[in-house]
From TrEMBL:
This is Riboflavin biosynthesis protein RibD. In the C-terminal section; belongs to the HTP reductase family. In the N-terminal section; belongs to the cytidine and deoxycytidylate deaminase family. Pfam families: dCMP_cyt_deam_1 (PF00383), RibD_C (PF01872). It comes from Streptomyces chilikensis. Keywords: NADP, Oxidoreductase. Gene3D superfamilies: Cytidine Deaminase, domain 2, Dihydrofolate Reductase, subunit A.
Length: 382
């Protein structure tokens, strides 16, 4: 099920704190950065916080700039992004400014928290309470936001507990961190990220920029997911594989495919595309794997991303790509598109891989991107 693009946004002190322990919210951003945050809000379909932030900060979470609100309205969007709250307890103050400002609100809670949240918000026609089960399942929250509220871009404004869970579970697409030039120094102050197990490796730095006296750093988590569930980083790499497919020399008799092989820690091991380097028959996965030393110990925990599922049979080479992947020891493949019958009827590379113990993850929301360079082969519809 598709998810929105999830952007974590936070301002932190030099010692990694989100706030101090005083009664007032600590302003870490300066005026220029608050204006940047307003711009990010205006570009989002929804803004999510945890109930801890609602209690601590009395947030309104609105787009402040009238010009940005007018731009949204002119584009046919609601003037304000949807406000999203997560709570386990359902213990909500109905008098909080959060409820009386902005547009629609959605409250995601547990079966246990729902009756209390519903009681607190009784009479509010602009707030929906959605129980998602005995525990708060983040994937269910994201799927519901995508499917029911049509949220494609979700900004998460904290606090630490929410940011920690989304980064740890591989559901964050981007982190926007404003580093403020002050030190809180209080060991009891809330931190951005708590202790625990995070995806391995380094995040990818996308941008740094001074904004007034804070430094904005934008990162993308790129360590692939594990097992059959897709992570945000899986979407990042699959999109790249689909873009690589556009680099293939045109052909009337073979698909254009892109592939990337990525180590467990997010290091790109190799990439390839069909017919690259003047070889008229080479496939994308084959080209990428050929660039990696077969004894590279990282292969066994690597993920192969391929815009089209790896081939199961071929005439032009002795081994199809599904067999090459198995022989390389790779145990996870993420793909956008099952092979149609165009050239090989009943090809089932995913089945060959699964029979060999590989987790095959299909993300059909990327199929249009994967098929785009192949329209001339598909006779209208794939
Ligand atoms: N500098 C910055 O950019 C920002 C700073 N902050 C600061 O962060 C602090 C608040 O952070 P924090 O205390 O971590 O609070 P959060 O805002 O992360 O909210 C935590 C609460 O959200 C609900 N929740 C979160 N995850 C789950 C789950 N898996 N299941 C059920 N309920 C869940 C629970 O609500 P319940 O208790 O109702 O069950 C939980 O107590 C404040 O001091 C605030 O000022 C906040 C945002 C941005
Ligand atoms: N303190 C702090 C932030 N705090 C965030 O701002 C939210 C309140 O925004 P508003 O409703 O517009 O007042 C609050 O819930 C919390 O998520 N954000 C930042 O970018 N920088 C900061 O220094």
């Amino acid at each position: 099920m598709p998810h929105p693009y999830v952007l974590l946004s936070a301002a932190v002190s030099l010692d990694g704190c989100l706030d101090d322990t005083g009664p007032e919210r600590l302003l870490l951003s300066g005026p220029e950065d608050f204006d940047r945050v307003d711009e990010v809000r205006a570009a989002s379909d929804a803004i999510l916080i945890g109930a801890g932030t609602l209690r601590a900060d009395a947030p309104r979470l609105v787009v402040r700039s009238p010009a940005r609100r007018a731009e949204r309205a002119a584009a046919g969007r609601p003037e304000f992004p949807l406000k999203v709250l997560v709570t386990g307890s359902g213990d909500l103050d109905p008098a909080a400014a959060f409820w009386g400002t902005g547009g629609r609100k959605a409250v995601y809670t547990t079966d246990r928290g729902a009756p209390r949240a519903q009681a607190a918000l009784r009479g509010r026609k602009d707030a929906d309470v959605v129980p998602v089960g005995p525990e708060l399942d983040w994937r269910a929250v994201l799927e519901h936001l995508y499917a029911v509220h049509r949220v494609r871009r979700l900004m998460v404004e904290g606090g630490g507990s929410v940011h920690t869970q989304l980064l740890r579970s591989g559901l964050a697409d981007e982190l926007q961190l404003a580093v403020a030039p002050l030190v809180v120094g209080d060991p009891a102050a809330p931190r951005l990220f708590g202790p625990g197990a995070y995806p391995p490796g380094r995040l990818r730095l996308e941008e740094t920029r001074p904004v007034g006296d804070v430094v904005l750093a934008r990162y993308r988590p790129v360590a692939p997911g594990a097992g059959p569930l897709a992570s945000a980083a899986d979407r990042y790499w699959l999109e790249l594989a689909c873009e690589l497919a556009r680099e293939c020399p045109p052909s009337g008799t073979a698909f254009s495919v892109g592939a990337v092989v990525v180590a467990e820690d997010g290091t790109e091991l190799a990439r390839g595309h069909s017919r690259e380097g003047g070889d008229p028959v080479v496939h994308a996965e084959e080209a990428a794997l050929a660039k990696i030393d077969p004894s590279d110990a990282r292969l066994s925990a690597a993920t192969v991303y391929s815009s089209l599922e790896p081939c199961a049979r071929r005439a032009s080479r002795p081994a199809p790509c599904a067999r090459l992947i198995l022989a390389a020891g790779v145990r996870r493949v993420v793909t956008a598109w099952r092979e149609p019958d165009t050239f090989v009827p009943g090809a089932d590379g995913s089945g060959v891989l699964a029979a060999g113990g590989v987790d095959v993850v299909l993300l059909p929301e990327f199929q249009d991107l994967a098929t785009a360079p192949n329209g001339h082969l598909l006779g209208g519809s794939p």
